[in-house]
Amino acid sequence: MAILSSSFLSNNIMSSLFGSSSLAGPLALVRTLASTHTLIRRNSHLFTRANTPPTRRIFCSQSSAVTVHNTAISSNGNPEYGRLLPCPSHHGPPRIEHLVVKDGGTVLEYICKVLDLPPLFVADLIHFGAVYYALVCPKPPPTATPEEIDLYKQYTDPAVLSKRVSIKGKTVREAQKTFRITSGDEFVETGTYLRVHVHPKRFPRCYEIDWRSRIISVTESYVVLDKPAGTSVGGTTDNIEETCATFATRALGLTDPLMTTHQIDNCTEGCVVLARTKEYCSVFHGKIREKKVKKLYLALTAAPVPIGVITHYMRPINIAPRLVSEEFTTRWFLCQLEILECKMVPWPNADIEDKYSIEDCGWPSQEFAYECKISLLTGRTHQIRAQLAACGAPIVGDAMYMPAAKAEISRPGLNPLGKCKKQYASENDREVGIEDWIACHGKEPRIAIGLQACQISWDDGEHFYEAKSPWWR
Fold first, then answer.
1. How many CA atoms lie within 13 A of 348 on its CB side?
2. Shortest CA distance to 442 belongs to which of 402, 473, 410, 406?
């Protein structure tokens, strides 16, 4: 914004003011913050309150499906963390609060005071990994109010920043880097920035799974898990608690937490390798880079798919839905998979769909489905889902890609990247067409779709593992 482009906000000036060393780790920063918190005058604290009226209160409540253990009291008088499901489920839109710290103190006390949240709720958010801080607040978004912009200017004025010992030797960009808060006792300095994900993304299915029964193999270096659909392998930005890695670690009674080595979509089930050591995590990453890891999938599609290799190119934009085209496009990512088998099977009945929360996307013919065995030759996010939908054979229950496949069938040429694409008079018209095509897609499925990572192997089959039968069988 023009109002933010005045000379004192220039990165060049800031860089010359602070130097260019790298940002220290979170714990070191906390110690530094504790020694410098009195250097800035204490003024307004609120940077922006995202889509939330100031008087709104959030209370920690117990869902009817949740078990809460008794909470013990620690030696310092604070409740120890001991609940099974830390925060209540929220079905409303995400809520993220952006704060500039007015009065230095512990992060838990400050968030409780400013956002009027119960201490246990805030402690749970921190346990979830839903609270972040930075030494210097980032630039306000375009929707910021004049008051918020003035507040940003106040706390990023070079005359103010030059007095802060905690950021000497750092560029502004380095000081604006966010770190996850790991303890409610961590100290936050006046003028620092906090981001609080008040309504983190939830994965309630974690509490319904018999995790021990999902373990395929345990070795000294890794664990192979038959991941349930509706769960996250390694967590999200605001939730590192409700993950496959966390629950598998607990199910096995391991002292050291398991680490993720690769990902599959939340709505996909099947084989996932979790490393027991940092060394093996690095080793497995190397095997993936060297293409020594082979993955086979089973997909339940709404239409038949021809045997053979399918090639597309994926738009290099890291948001869903992922768009693919059969035509080569510069800087777009190559996507290849091979259909090894495709056989007709009964469409899952209503009881099975209900049991696994399969969404009825309104495909016109639901008498037969098609089970395809797929060798994944490249590994892109949503690759199988996007490629099959582009072939007119979306995956059963895929509420994001099936609506678009239906729209293209009913209106050939709607997809500006498809086989029947129309010619556009200008690049601007084509971009409008792409936006219209994106709007034809739906939302991410709630729980499961007809996709399973059925086999994983590496080192020429020396390590070979299979998942159990998919949910639709």
1. 26
2. 402
3-state DSSP assignment of residue 90: coil
**Residue 167 DSSP label:** G
Q: How far is CA 272 from CA 100, 168, 288, in A?
A: 40, 44, 13
What is the share, in percent, of the chain residues with pLDDT greater than 70? 81
Tell me if residue 185 is catalytic: no
β-strand partners of 29: none
Q: Which long-range contacts (CB under 8 A, 24 or more apart) does 413-418 make?
A: 414/440, 415/390, 417/323, 417/324, 417/325, 417/326, 417/327, 417/390, 418/325, 418/326, 418/390
For CA atoms 118, 124, 127, 128, the dihedral sign is: negative
pLDDT band of residue 88 (cuts 50, 70, 90) is: low
* Contact indicator for 239, 128 with CB cutoff of 8 Å: yes
Residue type, 135: L
CA 215 to chain centre: 24
Q: Assign residue 357 a region (left: φ > 0; alpha: ψ between -120 and 50; beta: otherwise).
A: left
CA proximity to 390, closest of 346, 335, 353, 430: 335
Q: For 88, which DSSP code?
A: -
Residue 344 tokens, joined:
């007709």
Query: Which among 105, 97, 108 has a CA at the least distance from the CA of 137?
Result: 97
Amino acid in position 386: A
Catalytic residue among 265, 360, 436, 459: 265
Distance, in Å, from the CA atom of 48 to the CA atom of 94, rounded to the nearest integer, reads 15
377, 291 Cβ separation under 8 angstroms = no
Q: Which pTM does this prediction carry?
A: 0.79
DSSP-assigned letter for residue 209: -
